[in-house]
């Protein structure tokens, strides 16, 4: 490392801070940047320099976007009556891969983790509750106005809690479930609150499954 020019060394040291990047990989990437055409390097540098200023949170679902509202919420073909709650944007991207889901999202940007001093107020749970309140308290007059303007009446059908199946994810899901039940009880509205199914992965083997995975797979078995 000491034999590298100063600027190249600084780039390599920065790259080592990235997840999964060691010293050798960082050096290779630094040399890769050095060999890039000047135009590509300038474009890359510009995107990096404006990353913070251009990236914002969607006003509806808190997904990352460069506009006020993200492309998913702007898409008229998405089912706005179905909301999947995810921990972070990478989880959202996983759902979007393969075109397996046509609803919309709410991104929490974290999960309840008392050991690391992260409580419900530190992530975007209150924004979810406010969003659900607004959707379920749509007045008759507002519904009539939407129909008059040719808009589909919003009728929240289901909220899918897609937290990761770990202790913190379970705690977050149970907290949100309880808060949503307060809305349903108070306003006498009907929408389902569901949790992603647990079980064995495709291509997996029973031999290597832990007891909790097998337990959830048995509990969540379906007709065949």
UniProtKB/TrEMBL annotation:
Residue ranges constituting the Toprim domain according to the UniProt record: 81-201
UniProt cross-references to SUPFAM superfamilies, sorted A to Z: Recombination protein RecR
One BP term from GO: DNA recombination
Protein species of origin: Candidatus Roizmanbacteria bacterium RIFCSPHIGHO2_01_FULL_39_12c
PROSITE patterns: TOPRIM (PS50880)
Keyword hit for DNA damage: yes
Similarity section: Belongs to the RecR family.
Gene3D superfamilies noted in UniProt: 3.40.1360.10, 6.10.250.240, RecR Domain 1 (1.10.8.420)
Protein name: Recombination protein RecR
Known role: May play a role in DNA repair. It seems to be involved in an RecBC-independent recombinational process of DNA repair. It may act with RecF and RecO.
InterPro entries: DNA_Rcmb_RecR, Rcmb_RecR, TOPRIM_dom, TOPRIM_RecR
Molecular function per GO: DNA binding; zinc ion binding
Keywords: DNA damage, DNA recombination, DNA repair, Metal-binding, Zinc, Zinc-finger
Xref: Pfam families: RecR_C, RecR_HhH, Toprim_4
């Amino acid at each position: 490392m000491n034999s590298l020019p100063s600027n190249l060394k600084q780039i390599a040291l920065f790259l080592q801070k990235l997840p999964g990047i060691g010293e050798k990989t960082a050096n290779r990437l630094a040399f890769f940047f050095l060999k890039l055409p000047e135009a590509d390097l300038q474009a890359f540098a510009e995107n990096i320099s404006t990353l913070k200023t251009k990236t914002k949170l969607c006003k509806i679902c808190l997904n990352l976007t460069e506009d006020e509202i993200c492309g998913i919420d702007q898409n008229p073909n998405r089912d706005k009556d179905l909301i999947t709650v995810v921990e972070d944007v990478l989880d959202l991207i996983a759902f979007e891969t393969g075109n397996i889901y046509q609803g919309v999202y709410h991104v929490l940007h974290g999960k309840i983790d008392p050991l690391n001093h992260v409580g419900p107020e530190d992530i975007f749970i209150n924004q979810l509750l406010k969003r659900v309140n607004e959707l379920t308290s749509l007045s008759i007059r507002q519904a009539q106005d939407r129909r008059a303007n040719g808009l589909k009446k919003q009728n929240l059908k289901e909220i899918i809690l897609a937290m990761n199946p770990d202790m913190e994810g379970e705690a977050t899901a149970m907290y949100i479930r309880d808060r949503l039940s307060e809305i349903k009880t108070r306003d006498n509205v009907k929408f389902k609150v569901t949790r992603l199914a647990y079980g064995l992965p495709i291509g997996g083997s029973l031999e290597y499954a832990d007891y909790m995975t097998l337990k959830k797979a048995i509990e969540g078995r379906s007709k065949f």
